[in-house]
Amino acid sequence: TIEKLERIEPPTRHELKAKFQFPEPPRTSRVVAELHDVTAGYDDTPILTGVTGAVERGDKLALVGPNGAGKTTLLKLISGELRPVFSPSSHITVFGKERWNVWELRSHLGIVSHDLQHEYLAGVLAVNVVLSGFHSSMDTWQHQVFSDVQYQKAQETMDMLGVGALQERPFGTLSTGEQRRLLLGRALVNDPQALLFDEPTSGLDLRASFRYRELLSKLMRSGTTVLLVTHHIHEIPSEIQRVVLLKKGAIFADGSKQEMLTSEKLSAVFDYPLHAMAHNGTYQVFPADEGDAV
Predict the structure, then answer these.
(1) What are phi and psi of 287, to 5 degrees?
(2) Which of 64, 118, 208, 214 has the fewest CB atoms within 10 Å around its CB?
(3) pLDDT tens-place string over residues 4-58
(4) Where are the alpha helices (DSSP H) in 38-169?
(5) 3-state secondary structure 174-189
(6) Is the pTM of this model over 0.70?
């Protein structure tokens, strides 16, 4: 007879802590992530080349650039999902450390991405999506134990995000916007030191997109460190203070939102004549009319 195979999950952060006693990253450190002369890619194809930069605690930062510029690759380097090409001159530190167990590192980062949404099975209950954030796992598993405090925290987080009534609903029956809120709850439930968003409003309609942006704004106003990847300029919340423009695997420019989101710089980074306009701290971009100065 053929026995049913059980899905094997990697060890949880709690199991790793119990076995190896990993130290907490120092919350007094001002630097969340620092990269020096980093090159990274997939197989033999480089995506980022010679990148140097830092993210400080409290930063509200947007990574902006065309598809293939290296925005998602940069997030994966910070989260430990991707390792850089070895070079004696290059290094990456996250919370002051070069070497991390990847599962332990992710317990200190809240990650929301389009890819993550597709990794959850349709039958997973909504409440379990949020609870899984305590273990940095996909779904909850029989060997995982949750305390009353953790259940309460999951409920409070879902209520805060407006999805508290969906606890027993299967993930696959929910709208894209509701699913994305649950993933945000998964990211928040562990009180992470930084939040990484990779195209968080991708696939959302206008109403859901703007409501999600309101949630991000609220988090940033509370002091949360945020790294937001997008190529949709109008989806950048007004609270974003710093913008890094990426082009062809390199940092094209880095500075304040007002300095970076100009017609001239956006036209150059997207290789297309664009006209940027500011309104109440947010920006819109239009094709430049003939004769417009960019």
Answers:
(1) -60, 135
(2) 118
(3) 334 444 445 444 444 444 445 555 568 999 999 999 999 889 999 999 999 999 9
(4) 71-79, 102-106, 114-119, 126-131, 148-160
(5) CCHHHHHHHHHHHHHC
(6) yes
